[in-house]
Amino acid sequence: MGKNWSAASRPAKRLLRRLRPVDSFNLLLFNSELSSFAPAPVAATTDNVEQALAFIRNSRFAAAPTCQRALRAGLAQAAKAGGQPYIVL
Question: For the chain, what are the domain ranges?
Fold first, then answer.
């Protein structure tokens, strides 16, 4: 894994570790293709957070992301989930 990806994924890992069980989340990793952790947001249980951290660790992406598809997918999921959506790019 490149050092750019390692640096870019650090804030996401920190954010995941701070989620509470009442929170829900999903990860949409993007570059030339979109890779989703789950088909829809999931509860921030310990198990789901650990699986998401593994998803980040096992992901391989190049340096030139195109975020339009990821942003659309994230917004669509947030609209369906209700509550207060937060999208972190």
Answer: 3-81
